[in-house]
Amino acid sequence: MKKYIVSSIIGIGFLFSSCVDLDQSPEGYITLSQYFQTEADAISAVSGVYAILVHSDENTPLYGDQILYLNDLAADYMITGSNSNSPETRAIASVSYGAGNYEVRCTWVQIYKGISRANIAIENIPNVTASEGIKTRLINEAKFLRALLYFNAVQFWGEIPLVLQGEYKDADLIRRPIDEVYAQIIKDLEDAENLPLSFSGEDIGRATSGAASALLARVYLVREDWENAAKYAKKVIDSNQYELFENYYDAFDPAKKNGKEHIFSAQFAYGQDGGSSGNSIAHCVWSTYFNGQEPVLIISDMDLFYYSYADGDQRREGSYAKILYNPETQSVYEFEKPRFRKYIDTTVVLSSVYASAINTDIIRYADVYLTLAEALNEQGGPNNTFEGISAYDAINEIRRRAFREGKYSLDNANPQPALHDFAGLSQEKFREKLRDERYFEFVTEQTRWFDLVRWKTLVKSVKRIPAKSAVSTRNYRFPIPQSERDLNPEGLWQNWGYEGATVENPYDDSFQ
């Protein structure tokens, strides 16, 4: 039996726990069988899986920069600013990264650390002294998190090791077929659908049945299983557990975390990762404060992205800050290039330019509507319906909130007519409009690269940006980190287009 020490870090809402393998003297250490004794032990173990989303001993957490780097920064609308001093981050931005890139390696390591923790929890919780109900719930929470981590990994790298028992470092590291990975993701999420509809008190923020259904909808969308994508999206809508905020920016207000639109979020708090850092995305988008210097992450092209919003679309000001009130000077400051707005916590703007307790939204209710709209359109065009709701109905719900029309009007007593609804579009035109809507809606929410890849428009979209001219079809996947390949070069073969690859080009002319 391996020996482990269980350490704890208290964070907002969760007890962060980690298991560290030790080859030293067993004195003072405990085995897993000794640790997993009580209900509190089981809760602590699952909380340790949640902790992977928001805490890292090395570099930044998964949902505090790492997935943002590989997703939004590697896509089209984001580049590194002049204040970025990391060659590793700049390589992601310029799409010139290779297998030795530190950010790619950190993301891989953190994902599999989380998977390892989930495996340990799933295997050992049945042995604790607790009610069967609480044990089943905790196991299903761990399965949800394992599915989420694998879903990120399979999209980034394609075929990956499928480790379902014990720790990653002890497994046979062999890349498994993509279909096999997705089958496991779906199986875990189907079990997680048995989670409670909601939580209260200190448990708010844990995975729910709605989160499992919403993630299943997204998984099936990526798989182009339009029927199941629509089915699970509609299931979330029919649960009546969620609503869109009338004010778009309320979804990112730290005072309104875990609100009616939030299906599942990475839970951040001030000071949980050292000092007053909180959500580290705040540093990258706000590191230069109120001055003319560019922060680490900045918009790539104003005309293509900032000015692409229609007049009156509240999502532009919710996603970008072109002007921002400076409480120190008691005046409005205008930036030459807008700052990414969602992670700037203006309630603490004077105490620290890095502080942010704003959660990273992993699944918002808006995604469910756009998933349903896309799935229905791909099945049969924008008039296609599923259980009484059409693709138009779904996308126009998002449009009405964006322009504060209908039930989202500023004046509830005098609702504004829905002047921005889509109608009369062909399937192809609806597809184009929906893809625009996903950009407008999800700036800095770790979806853009995933979207461009599944639409097979990555190269065409990214190549519009001169600083990213190195992009090619090889970038439809990230390289397997060389440090991992060194563990099993044959089992962890390299993706096509990167140094050391021996496989043939898997991309045909449909990949643009």
Would you write up a description of this structure?
- This protein is of the alpha+beta class and 512 residues long.
- Among the domains are: 61-192 and 447-512, Serine Threonine Protein Phosphatase 5, Tetratricopeptide repeat (Alpha Horseshoe); 281-358, no CATH class.
- Helices cover 39% and strands 12% of the residues.
- Strands 2-1-3 form a 3-stranded antiparallel β-sheet. The protein has a two-stranded antiparallel ribbon with strand order 4-8. Strands 5-6 form a two-stranded antiparallel sheet.
- The longest helix has 26 residues, at 132-157.
- It starts with a strand and ends in a 27-residue tail after the last helix.
Which bin fits the share of residues in helices?
25-40%
Q: Characterize the main sheet.
A: 3 strands, antiparallel
CATH class identity of the domain at 61-192 and 447-512: Mainly Alpha
What is the number of beta strands? 13
CATH topology of the domain at 61-192 and 447-512: Serine Threonine Protein Phosphatase 5, Tetratricopeptide repeat
Could you say which overall geometry the principal axes of the C-alpha atoms support? globular
Count the DSSP helices: 17
The stretches of 5 or more residues where confidence is low (pLDDT under 50) are: 1-29
* Secondary-structure element pattern, one letter each: EEEHHHEHHHEEHHHEHEHEEEHEEHHHHH
Q: Please tell me the CATH architecture of the domain at 61-192 and 447-512 by its name.
A: Alpha Horseshoe
Major sheet: order of its strands?
A: 2-1-3
Cα-to-Cα separation, first versus last residue: 51 Å
Question: Which percent band covers the strand fraction?
Answer: 5-15%
**Mean pLDDT score:** 91
Coarse structural class: alpha+beta
